[in-house]
Structures are given as structure tokens and as C-alpha cells.
Design a protein that fits this description.
This protein has about 400 residues and is α+β, with helices and mostly antiparallel strands. The protein has helices spanning about 1-20, 25-30, 110-120, 130-135, 330-350; strands at about 80, 135-165, 195-200, 205-210, 215-220, 230, 255, 265, 275-295, 315-320, 355-375, 375-385, 390.
């Protein structure tokens, strides 16, 4: 139906214009007529561009009814598909290994001074005097723990897709397609995110392109399929000054469309001129590493946001299909955080995805609060992380500078 309407409107317009322009009274009944200068062949304005537009979305009849994929949509997908129940009971989580007792080694005064000096030199407006001449009066170490839980999941979603047909295999209804979770894929290494998009076997069929209704070309939008447009020099009159014929359009009042080179049509961008589309169900498989951190807040005075930029000493690591909450760790705050996050992850991600592996770690992040004296006043700074990062919000010797 779409193709018949498209061909009828377009061809009737283009051929009727040629025979009708000989009638000098055409313009009285047709306001789109552009009067031409004497002796110049007339050109005519096209009908409304809406007459040429095919359907903007694929019709529902374009997609076959595939068993197991009844809810699959075009473009919007069918949403994330929950995994089926496992054929065998999953292994139960086991308690992790015993946690050894770790103490934070206190950094030396020399290390604290070197880190402070490096920090001051990295700031263009900081004087080196406090770092060079300040006298350290005390150094206090603080235990700070970071608990991290990672849940590596696989999720699958489907949608109807299409591509230009150029001889690909057509296998729809050759046999029932496999279910979304039965399509084999190559799983990446655990905790490494990845994405794969593939055709679902036995869902591919060949259909006429819905955008160009199987013609391979679409009317040019710039000229609405006429191949010409109103001359921009004479504004369609065919004349410039008085009786001077417009030299740009040779008095026709219209000029060839540069967008389609006067052809009136362009190659269909959907089927690339092939007229046919391969229509199939596309399966998207995503592997996601869902990670949550919990940092135990201490009374050192250092903002917790700073600790996200540094690493610590790993005290504990446990990786299983499903992990068991940490047991027996000396800080009960870490134990409570682990129990809460493990419960949240296993309940949240098992609804829309398949959990492949979980991993939990505990890091000890060293934080040293350094108090020093400079010019008779007491000041502090923090040295933290394995990288010996420094935080000194109230550095006592700064100046206002501007980059020219």
C-alpha cells in the first residue's frame, strides 16, 4: 500500500507538470506556478513535501511472531530479561579466610617532611618556607578501613533490528530460535566489563524497506522531489531589474536542486538503495562490575573524599560465586557494612541479571596527622595512602598570583 501511494503521487506529479506548463493560464489555478521570463521553459513548484513521506516507524507487520520473543519491540527493546531459574542449586557461600592482625606502620618524620615539601612545591602560590623551616611537634596515626564489594553480573536484552540486505542468510522459521539466555556467548574475565551484540539465530527474514517502500530512493527533502527550487537571485520571478531576464536561472524562476543534483530523489539512508532489509532480533549481552565502597570514618579530621584517590594495604580478599559476609573482623563497623552490602547486592542484582562472581576486600589506609610549628603558630597537615598524599587546607604561606 505504501509503495503504491508513493509511486502514484511522485510520478503523477513529475509527468503532469511537463504537459501542463504549456497552458499559460496554469498559474491562475495553481499558486505554486512560477511565471517564467519570455522564451524560457517554465519550471514548477512541487507539491507539499508531506505527500512524499513514507511511514516514520516500521509497521507492526514487518516483525514476525517469534516464539519466546513475543514482548520484543523495535528500537526500544524488550527491557532486561530476568535469567531463568538455575537447573541445579547454586553453591552456597562459604566463610572467607581468617583475617590476620595488621598494624599500621608509622611513617617516619623524614617521610612526612619530604611529602610536605613535595606538596608545597606542586603549588604555584605556596611558599616553601613552612615545609622547609617548620618544626614537627607531633605525629598521630589513625586506622582507616575501606571495605569494597564487587558483584560481576551478566544481563541480556533484545530488540528488533534491521540492516540493508545484501545476501545475508535468511533463517527465520527454519527451526525454533533459542531462548535469550540459551544463546552461547564468550564470557570475559571476571570483573572486566564488556558488551556483545549479536543476531539471535533463526530470527532473520527479508522485508521491503519501510522507509522508501521498497524503491531504494527517497524524494529529496530540499526540493520535495521536484529536482528544482525557487531561484534565490530573482526569488522565482525570472526577472531581476524591470525586464532584465535573470541570468542565474535563465529566466525560468527556478534552479536545479544542488542537494540531489536535479534528480529529485536521494539514496534511501535506511536500506542504502538495496530496497530490502534483513530484519532480525538483536541480543545485547552486558557484563557489569557493580562496586560499592564503605570507608570507616575516623576522628582524624581528614575528609573521607580524599581517601577515594589513594590506595591502601590489602588486609583481606575473598572471591566466590556468592560471598559470605565478613566474620570476626576487629572493627564491628566493617562487619556491619559488609553484611548490609552483601545482602543488598545479592537481592538487587539477581532480579534483572545473572550473578557470575562476587569479590570483597578490606584495605587499611594509613592516615597520619602531623602537627608542626612555624613562626610561633601551630599548624597541621595530613599524610595518607600508600602514595603519601598530603592535605593541608590551611597552609600558612600562600600568595595571590595570576597566570598571565
Amino acid at each position: 500500500m505504501y509503495r503504491t501511494l508513493f509511486v502514484s503521487v511522485w510520478l503523477n506529479f513529475r509527468f503532469s507538470v511537463t504537459s501542463s506548463h504549456q497552458n499559460r493560464n496554469y498559474g491562475m489555478a495553481n499558486p505554486g506556478y512560477a511565471p517564467a521570463a519570455e522564451g524560457a521553459p517554465a519550471m514548477f513548484a512541487p507539491p507539499a513535501a508531506a505527500d512524499f513521506l513514507g511511514p516514520s516507524a516500521p509497521p507492526a507487520s514487518m516483525f514476525d511472531n517469534m516464539p519466546g520473543y513475543e514482548g520484543t519491540l523495535a528500537g526500544g527493546g524488550g527491557g532486561f530479561l530476568p535469567p531463568p531459574m538455575p537447573a541445579f542449586p547454586p553453591p552456597q557461600p562459604q566463610p572467607g579466610p581468617e583475617q590476620p592482625h595488621w598494624n599500621i606502620p608509622s611513617i617516619s618524620e623524614e617521610t612526612a617532611r619530604e611529602a610536605f615539601a613535595l606538596y608545597a612545591s606542586s603549588k604555584c602560590c605556596y611558599s616553601a618556607a613552612p615545609a622547609k623551616d617548620g618544626v614537627i611537634t607531633s605525629m598521630d596515626a589513625f586506622n582507616t578501613y575501606r571495605y569494597r564489594l564487587e558483584t560481576f553480573t551478566e544481563s541480556r536484552s533484545t530488540e528488533w533490528s534491521h540492516e540493508p540486505y545484501h545476501g545475508q542468510p535468511v533463517d527465520a522459521f527454519a527451526q525454533p530460535p533459542p531462548g535469550p539466555w540459551d544463546v552461547p556467548v564468550k564470557v570475559p574475565s571476571f570483573f572486566v566489563e564488556d558488551k556483545q551484540i549479536m543476531k539471535v539465530p533463526y530470527t532473520s527474514s527479508m522485508k521491503a524497506c519501510h522507509v522508501c517502500v521498497g524503491m531504494g530512493r527517497k524524494p529529496c527533502k530540499d526540493c520535495a522531489g521536484a529536482g528544482n527550487k525557487v531561484c534565490w537571485v530573482c526569488n522565482g520571478s525570472g526577472y531581476r531589474h524591470g525586464e532584465d531576464r535573470c541570468h542565474h536561472c535563465s529566466g525560468r524562476g527556478r534552479e536545479n536542486c544542488n542537494h540531489c543534483h536535479g534528480q529529485g530523489s536521494m539514496q534511501c539512508p535506511t536500506c542504502h538503495g538495496k530496497q530490502q532489509l534483513l530484519v532480525y532480533i538483536s541480543l545485547t549481552v552486558k557484563w557489569t562490575n557493580n562496586s560499592d565502597n564503605y570507608v570507616v570514618e575516623q576522628s582524624s579530621g581528614l575528609q573521607l573524599d580524599n581517601l577515594s584517590k589513594v590506595s591502601g594495604k590489602e588486609l583481606f580478599r575473598d572471591s566466590q560465586y556468592l560471598v559470605y559476609p565478613v566474620i570476626g573482623f576487629p572493627d564491628p563497623v566493617v562487619v556491619n557494612a559488609a553484611e548490609r552490602l552483601v545482602s543488598e547486592h545479592q537481592g538487587k542484582y539477581s532480579r534483572t541479571s545473572r550473578i557470575l562472581q562476587q569479590r570483597q576486600t578490606i584495605e587499611l589506609i594509613p592516615v597520619t596527622k602531623v602537627t608542626y610549628s612555624w613562626k610561633g603558630k601551630s599548624h597541621i597537615y595530613f599524610v595518607y595512602g600508600n602514595e603519601f598524599k598530603v592535605n593541608a587546607d590551611n597552609y600558612p604561606a600562600t600568595c595571590c598570583c595570576a597566570v598571565m
